[in-house]
């Protein structure tokens, strides 16, 4: 009778061992899937980091280009102002001479008056245009809007 009980108990134990072995196999398969997912995630991370690095390089070049273009624009605006001042001085000088000596004809004086008027209008218009450009550039290209770590420049 006791041997019979052991055999019956042994049958249940064997089923339990089979069930435990099946659980271990399921766990092993799950671990394998997770390992594959980890490898794929690492590969994707490497690709994304490489892309990020390339984009950071492009951003750095773009920032440098913007800086160069801004310097060119400032130099051009300074040159424009200088030329406008020269033109204004020439117009004022000719207007003074024409009043005192009457050497210039009425047509020439009207042309000078028109130039003086256009110069003032152009100066006002260029002032408006310049500030509009400044405002738009500041809103689009503000360095404070873009997070940029300069310590990576050495890389």
TrEMBL record:
Biological process per Gene Ontology, one example term: mitotic spindle midzone assembly
Keywords assigned: Coiled coil
Annotated signal sequence range: none
PANTHER family attached to this UniProt entry: RAC GTPASE-ACTIVATING PROTEIN 1
GO molecular function, one term: GTPase activator activity
GO cellular component, one term: nucleus
Record gene name: Racgap1_2
Protein name, per record: RGAP1 protein
Highest taxon of source: Eukaryota
Coiled-coil intervals, chain numbering: 38-97
